[in-house]
Design goal:
Blueprint: E1 5-9, H1 11-18, H2 27-36, E2 41-44, H3 55-65, E3 70-75, H4 88-95, E4 99-102, H5 118-134, E5 138-144, H6 150-155, E6 160-164, H7 166-173, H8 178-193, E7 197-201, H9 209-215, E8 221-224, H10 226-235, H11 237-250
Parallel strand pairs: 1-2, 1-8, 2-3, 3-4, 4-5, 5-6, 6-7, 7-8
This protein binds 1-deoxy-D-xylulose-5-phosphate (DXP) and the ligand NCC(=O)COP(=O)(O)O.
Residues 9, 11, 45, 74, 103, 111-112, 142, 201-202, 225 line the site of 1-deoxy-D-xylulose-5-phosphate (DXP).
Length: 251
């Protein structure tokens, strides 16, 4: 199976930029550097409150990624459009990403902290999945490790799951990742048996990614942002991305 793709989430560059209301640092320059050293994709999670990535950033990333890497747009497909935030479906219409990752985040959440309740949510997700697919996007659903109802992902036409790795990362930092890893591995195996692709993300880092990839089979893509840009503050962005690529290649 092909090696795991690295999709760098550039949200945190936009956090720094927006903190002073100017244009620097530029998330597009960061994305360009990541792609230049070999990252296979760029992920963004535009949120309705425009705390970091804006709709304008998303549209501008499209030509920058073209032919160089996949554009993955994350978001809650039910979040209402408002001034400055056209909604995930409209963003996908404008940016035509290779992938959309549907995440059940509430508007006020500080970050993503859970996956969909697939048995409850699948029915109302189905028409949206069809719309995103009609735009040519691969659809991935953000799910908790151990989530029930994985078969519903396939039934409504989504092609992948993204395993929420926050609990694994927390357990790993506490030196007790065994159970969390086993849940992630079992979820990945169940998804593959259903013909679904497997992505993973949230709080992955240089410290925990190797253990994760060695334990969880057939992960097609990891999306990493928060830890990566924190590490890059000290080591530099291109060097940090190259480190992740080497770590993935040797996991
Ligand atoms: C879905 C996921 O785990 C990440 O996209 C996370 O939501 C990053 O969002 P923030 O950068 O706003 O924390
Ligand atoms: N889907 C996870 C993502 O895009 C980045 O999450 P994080 O590395 O910023 O926690």
């Amino acid at each position: 199976m092909a090696a795991t793709a690295l999709s760098v989430n550039v949200n945190k560059v936009a956090v720094l930029r927006n903190s002073r209301g100017g244009a620097l640092p530029d998330p597009l320059r960061a994305a360009d550097a990541c792609l230049r050293v070999g990252a296979q994709g760029i992920t963004v999670h535009p949120r309705p409150d425009r705390r970091h990535i804006t709709a304008e950033d998303v549209v501008a990333l499209r030509p920058l990624c073209a032919g160089r890497g996949e554009l993955n747009i994350e978001g809650n497909p039910f979040a209402a459009a408002r001034p400055g935030y056209p909604g995930l479906l409209e963003l996908a219409r404008e940016a035509r990403p290779e992938q959309v990752t549907l995440v059940p985040d509430g508007d006020g959440q500080i970050t993503s902290d859970h996956g969909f309740d697939l048995e409850r949510d699948a029915e109302r997700l189905a028409p949206l999945v069809a719309e995103f697919r009609a735009l040519g996007a691969r659809v991935s659903l953000f799910v908790d490790a151990g989530s029930k109802g994985l078969s519903r992902v396939r039934e409504i036409g989504a092609q992948r799951i993204e395993i929420y790795t926050g609990p694994f990362a927390e357990a790993h930092a506490a030196g007790r990742a065994g159970d969390a890893l086993a849940r992630c591995a079992a979820t990945a195996r169940s998804a593959r048996a259903l013909g679904l692709g497997v992505n993973a993300g949230h709080d992955l880092s240089q410290d925990n990614l190797g253990d994760f990839l060695r334990a969880v089979p057939a992960v097609q893509e990891v999306s990493i942002g928060h830890a990566l840009f924190g590490e890059a503050l000290y080591a530099g962005l291109e060097r940090t991305v190259k480190f992740y690529l080497a770590l993935i290649a040797t996991a």
